[in-house]
Amino acid sequence: MKWAYLCAIPLVALxxxxxxxxxxxxxxxxxxxxxGQYEVTAEVTNFKAADKGIPxxxxxxxxxxxxxxxxxxxxxxxxxxxxxxxxxCRGSSDVFVRNGSINGSIDCTGTGLSGQVAxxxxxxxxxxxxxxxxELKTRLTTDxxxxxxxxxxxxxxxxxSAAPAIPAxxxxxx
Length: 174
What we know:
mainly beta; 2 helices; elongated
């Protein structure tokens, strides 16, 4: 009897690891984010000065921005999907976006900032939407470092287009 019990354990573990695309779809998970134009809203949930200097990034808790970003066909979502417009980023190759999960980090630089802006992102997605928690930490060579937590919400609005970005008036704090 012990033998039968011991043989069953690996089978139960194997069954639990199953998953696959059909199971992911049944659970509302997508294997990949569908290509297309996404409207992405970022809302600051926490702002903290990380040193005694005057913060070099001017935002506050409750500020919200919305922008439009294209996720290309068959490619990795661009860094712009997870970061802010004000920064130049190294790409999103360090962000895992697969099987319903988003997890990773992106390094950026900013005009007028001497040092690095580092993002960490963790969240979930379906084929045409996502929600993630994002943390930004600056590592500047001067005072003024900050730590900013935000919630990102994105939804697919259609095919990628050369349409103008969402007007700046809509990007102001709400």
